[in-house]
Automatic annotation (TrEMBL):
Residues 225-252 form a coiled coil. Belongs to the arsA ATPase family. Pfam families: ArsA_ATPase. The keyword GTP-binding does not apply. The keyword Ubl conjugation does not apply. This is ArsA/GET3 Anion-transporting ATPase-like domain-containing protein. InterPro entries: ArsA/GET3_ATPase-like, ATPase_ArsA/GET3, P-loop_NTPase. It comes from Rubroshorea leprosula.
């Protein structure tokens, strides 16, 4: 019996993926909307969800093999859970087979680029770049169209940024943004800014949505001559600091 329950547990797909796919079935089958957006979980959860049809097929095969091996035990189990119909086992398996057919139909829609596309959302950091590449590779295996990447939380070179920490962060982000453009040169890439305020409410969402149509440009202020001279002086000082740091690194390298 321990072996039986162990194999039954392994035959049942993940409940999270099952519930998510059930919601997909409801929405895709009704077709009451012109566009349906699935805001999926991080990469690992999403890939398990897309693997669900294959997982269900394996689970059904396992259940069928258990049925053949253990004969009437499964029938006794159905009665144990209050199902008295002697054909309950066949009815359950029939429902599962029917569900599998519907899921396969939905899966075909997912593979149709005219009906479905996948938009990858990431941030300019190493781990996010790695996960995005893994996702794109797996979507290609699943034959699901993907040609859009959104890079979120990008720090732009604002006029009033005078923080070494922020500028170091911008340099790091730029390194990974360049890698995104190098890896996905045939993708449509959209960069969205990290804002000082939270985007909540209809009006804020409408204003933020404009960045999908027009590339974000940092605001440019109106400066007096004195402010501009001060800004030039500050930039000159930064250049001197950078050159001094470069000399220090070169000297350290020569000693090594």
């Amino acid at each position: 019996m321990d072996s039986l329950f162990s194999e039954l547990a392994n035959a049942i797909p993940g409940i999270d993926e099952a519930m998510s796919f059930a919601e997909m079935l409801k929405l895709v089958q009704t077709m009451d909307y012109s566009v349906i957006v699935f805001d999926t979980a991080p990469t690992g959860h999403t890939l398990r969800l897309l693997q669900f049809p294959a997982t269900l097929e394996k689970g059904l095969a396992k259940v069928m093999s258990l049925r053949n091996r253990f004969g009437g035990i499964m029938s006794q189990m159905t009665r144990l859970f209050g199902i008295d119909d002697e054909f309950a086992e066949d009815a359950i398996l029939g429902r599962l087979e029917g569900m599998k057919d519907v899921i396969e139909q939905v899966n075909k829609q997912f593979k149709d680029p005219d009906l479905t596309t996948f938009v990858c959302v990431c941030i300019p950091e190493f781990l996010s770049l790695y996960e995005t590449e893994r996702l794109v590779q797996e979507l290609t295996k699943f034959e699901i169209d993907t040609h859009n990447i959104i890079i979120n939380q990008v720090l732009f070179d604002e006029e009033d940024v005078d923080s070494k920490l922020l500028r170091a962060r911008m340099r790091m982000q730029q390194k990974y943004i360049d890698q995104y453009y190098m890896l996905y040169d045939d993708f449509h890439i959209t960069k969205l800014p990290l804002l000082p305020e939270e985007v909540t409410g209809v009006e804020a969402l409408k204003a933020f949505s404009q960045h999908f149509l027009t590339p974000y440009q940092p605001p440019v202020g109106n400066y007096t001559v004195e402010e501009l001279e001060q800004k030039v002086s500050m930039l000159g000082q930064r250049l001197q600091d950078a050159e001094a740091e470069l000399d220090r690194l070169r000297k350290g390298k020569q000693k090594a």
